[in-house]
Amino acid sequence: xxxxxxxxxxxxxxxxxxxxxxxxxxxxxxxxxxxxxxxxxxxxxxxxxxxxxxxxxxxxxxxxxxxxxxxxxxxxxxxxxxxxxxxxxxxxxxxxxxxxxxxxxxxxxxxxxxxxxxxxxxxxxxxxxxxxxxxxxxxxxxxxxxxxxxxxxxxxxxxxxxxxxxxxxxxxxxxxxxxxxxxxxxxxxxxxxxxxxxxxxxxxxxxxxxxxxxxxxxxxxxxxxxxxxxxxxxxxxxxxxxxxxxxxxxxxxxxxxxxxxxxxxxxxxxxxxxxxxxxxxxxxxxxxxxxxxxxxxxxxxxxxxxxxxxxxxxxxxxxxxxxxxxxxxxxxxxxxxxxxxxxxxxxxxxxxxxxxxx
Amino acid sequence: xxxxxxxxxxxxxxxxxxxxxxxxxxxxxxxxxxxxxxxxxxxxxxxxxxxxxxxxxxxxxxxxxxxxxxxxxxxxxxxxxxxxxxxxxxxxxxxxxxxxxxxxxxxxxxxxxxx
Lengths: 358, 115
Fold this sequence. Notes:
The complex is a heterodimer of chains A (about 350) and B (about 120).
Chain A: H1 3-15, H2 21-42, H3 47-86, H4 93-113, H5 118-121, H6 124-147, H7 155-172, H8 175-182, H9 187-213, H10 217-228, H11 231-247, H12 256-275, H13 279-304, E1 313-315, E2 318-320, H14 322-339
Antiparallel strand pairs in A: 1-2
Helix pairs in contact in A: 1-2, 2-3, 4-11, 4-12, 7-9, 7-11, 8-9, 9-10, 9-14, 11-12, 11-13, 11-14, 12-13, 13-14
Chain B: H1 13-21, H2 29-39, H3 48-60, E1 64-66, E2 82-84, H4 86-114
Antiparallel strand pairs in B: 1-2
Helix pairs in contact in B: 1-2
């Protein structure tokens, strides 16, 4: 082999250092061996052939490097997302705290203000200002969560938003008032019908959101992960379940202590979801947390509420009136919301486009 | 996992020839280069960078597989070889069918004209 060949091979060896590290570790030896063989092939054909070989490598190099580095970057981002979502690493205390924040804020505020005497002693303007500040904090954290592509801690925020919007639409469209007095059917039938309609609205909204998620770059990764681990969407809806639980205290006065105690199992549910590896235990933890918090709500209703509606019928030892039935139906709605995402991987959403280029 | 071959179509010419070169068995990088050149009548001469960039991508897509180290390679040849996976064969078949279909459609008006 003459000097030119040696020189060419040396330059090629040096140029291999330009490739991404992982790629180099996998292929540099092979590429070197193949290049040596190619040089050997054309060595007898003169300098022009050698030059053509070198030029071909040189011309292709920028595009090849660009493609490989872009792929390397994409893989590294994907790896980070996988570690964060799919492998379901136990969450850090910061992640648990951030995920618990909406629960803390939403329960602490009405909880403290519902203690006898507190509401009267705080001026309305201060109370409203505080409420506005807390809602703003939640909104900022929710938007920050979306901007960093919906990590796990941001999911309950999304659930609070989804549930809030669905119920707001049901109220503003008059559906709620229609079923709570506008129809002549028996009260329990209207309540049941409204619950079923709310559930349907939640399912449609969730499917719609997932469909939208695959279209928007910021949420596309989340869509991919939900296809693999549907419990992520359950965790989001767990945030919504919290809103439903809190809504049960709407017309009970002096329930401050009950409200604060109700938040405890919900915090534990967040903690258990983020710290547990097995999918079924994560779902069971959230189910138990919602059930327990609803149990405390039921107890508060039985203890504190002025019974405006008489006992309508009895199931076992439980006297059923409107409030009790409302809690039971809301519990059903809340736990169903946790299980609805099970159907998401079975819905034939369009597949993301694959790259197809050399 | 079985993939839908249609998701990968149409293949670009170099990709098609790389898969085609592996259709009749495992090959090292150097043999793939030679086969691609021969199959394309010398029209496609891949650079090393392009070849290995394409091989990485095809492995990621599950269309080809890298075989374990060849214990007794021919002198100077790399120890690694590549072969088509089941998905790769399916994609190659689908692309060949697509090309055949295109050709038959293209020939139809010509045949009608000559009759």
